[in-house]
Amino acid sequence: MQKNVEFGIIGGTGIYNLNIKNATKIKISTPYGKTSDHIMIGEIKNKKIAFIPRHGNKHTIPPHLVNFKANIWAYKELGIKRIVGISSVGSLRKKIKPGQFVLPSQFLDFTKSRDGSFAKIGDVIHISVANPFCTELQEIISKVATKDKIKIHKNCTYTCIEGPRFSTYAESNFFRKIGADIIGMTLVPECQLARETQMCYLSISIVTDYDSWLDENVTAKNVSSKLADSTQIINKILTDLIELTPRKKTCNCEKDLLSAKL
After folding, report:
1. Which of 21, 141, 155, 262 is most buried (CB neighbours < 10 A)?
2. Rounded to an integer, what distance in angstroms lies between the CA atom of residue 181 and that of residue 158?
3. What does pTM read for this prediction?
């Protein structure tokens, strides 16, 4: 098995391939079952990169059935230190427009049935996610946005729902009232599993719609058409992020596990 892969990219809806050089596909068996797809290993800016499409290469896995634990466990096995999760979201704020990008700094978890921890009987973990995303990667992505003149909304709260259905009008307005800025279906438990396994995690969200509170009828077809326009920009953002990120980490993401046990 390949080791010492520096970055792990998890592609959301519409992101099924990246501009990776010398790419090969590998399959990793995990104690938690199959990963979403084969993992692509290659290089971006002379750094070893792994990529997996969260919903499978042909988008066959709905959000409530993604095997998050298998995906994260496989990335840990590859020696990955940093994960970038890309996801499509709906906007709950008029100023956050479809086609723009969002950098969440907090999340609200409204999922219902997901297995969100590697903790087991005899090995209890209470991981801190007060600040769930890597501060170092957030600083770097902000520099990338300035450099590339890309609009990225910062300090936003992501509400994660179970899916696969979209919100009702009442739900959408409820999430707005409690302080959410964007809404999606895949951030949780992906980001907290990464924290438990001592990997840094950064979320980049692509806004595809205004959810039910404004669009009234969000459709999968409309979401797909908006994502198609963002693929090239995502590749540019990731390339620059990987290039600017130093190999030595300066964040504290790895240390949270040390204080997670009683």
Report:
1. 141
2. 6
3. 0.94
